[in-house]
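Example for tutorial group B:
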């Protein structure tokens, strides 16, 4: 492929700044069509973002001859269906995370990619963000020695629409659409990056419960996990605390020091060793998916390799299934 001509399925909020504009900022890449079930919203998006075509039908976008790559930015419940359609039409797919509703669905998507020879990528863009690239560089440099354990704490207050007598929770906490709740939406990023950083997780167990009753999905999860390297990890994810308790912190402890960082809200990486502390401040770019999309475009042009293919993208779903569904852990497959 020379020029990558993108079509977006599901031009919702995530595509407004995080991803959509990036397609036109990357060399040899162009956004040429968008699709949304509501035709008026699809047209509005296209006009605001200077996209030549818009559709309200998935098949019309997939079969558009001017589109040669597909970005699926819908909720997870249709990721598998749309990805398989696009790959069978011969068009590479970049799909939002979590990759699908379950690890089994991810496996089916990867099987179609293998069967057709059409590439499949997942939007785990932290693998390419400068902040996390620097974090990996620090770990790989052995600055804190042999890694002993990882600790994650993510606790957020409920969204306004999730509380009160007239609450109307959105799709992310409707398991039939999202595959879970906020844990599935956010922890998927965390587990994907931790495997990129420390290698495959061998086992994971946990407890996922709904304590507050604001919606159907689990609102608290605790987990223990072990990497094949012997590094251990634990975490707690709670989404029903008050805003004063809001916290997003992670810590990697090694034999010679520790690194404190944030997965979502802060831009400092703090390295603590016997020599003292060092802080690296690396803000996210405006369009956070742009570095990863650029690597995907390069791979499609035969100029490089993306760090987030479907085979690694499926792993986060597998780990979350182990934790929330009590499924038996199995070895890493590639």
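The residue assignment follows.
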């Amino acid at each position: 492929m020379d020029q990558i001509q993108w079509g977006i399925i599901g031009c919702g909020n995530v595509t407004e700044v995080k991803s959509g504009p990036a397609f036109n900022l990357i060399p040899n890449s162009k956004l040429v069509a968008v699709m949304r079930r509501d035709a008026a919203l699809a047209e509005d998006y296209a006009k605001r973002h200077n996209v030549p075509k818009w559709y309200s039908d998935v098949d019309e976008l997939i079969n558009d001859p001017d589109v040669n790559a597909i970005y699926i930015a819908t909720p997870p419940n249709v990721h598998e269906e749309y990805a398989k359609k696009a790959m069978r039409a011969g068009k590479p797919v970049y799909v939002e995370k979590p990759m699908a509703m379950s690890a089994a669905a991810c496996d089916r998507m990867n099987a179609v990619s293998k069967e057709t020879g059409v590439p499949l990528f997942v939007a785990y863009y932290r693998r390419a963000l400068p902040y996390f690239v620097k974090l990996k560089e620090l770990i790989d440099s052995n600055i804190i020695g042999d890694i002993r354990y990882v600790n994650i704490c993510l606790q957020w207050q409920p969204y306004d629409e999730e509380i009160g007598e007239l609450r109307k929770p959105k799709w992310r906490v409707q398991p039939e659409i999202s595959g879970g709740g906020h844990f599935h939406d956010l922890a998927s990023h965390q587990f994907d990056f931790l495997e990129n950083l420390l290698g495959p997780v061998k086992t994971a167990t946990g407890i996922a419960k709904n304590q507050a009753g604001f919606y159907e999905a689990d609102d608290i999860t605790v987990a223990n996990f072990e990497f094949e390297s012997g590094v251990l990890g634990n975490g707690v994810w709670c989404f029903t605390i008050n805003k004063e308790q809001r916290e997003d912190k992670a810590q990697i402890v090694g034999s010679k020091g520790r690194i404190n960082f944030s997965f979502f809200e802060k831009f400092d990486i703090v390295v603590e060793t016997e020599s003292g502390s060092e802080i690296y401040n690396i803000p996210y770019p405006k369009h956070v998916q742009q570095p990863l999309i650029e690597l995907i475009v390069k791979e499609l042009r035969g100029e490089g390799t993306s760090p987030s293919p479907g085979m690694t993208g499926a792993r986060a779903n597998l780990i979350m299934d182990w934790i929330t569904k009590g499924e038996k852990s199995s070895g890493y497959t590639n």
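The CA atoms of residues 33 and 53 lie 5 Å apart. Compare this with the pattern of hydrophobic and polar residues in the output above.
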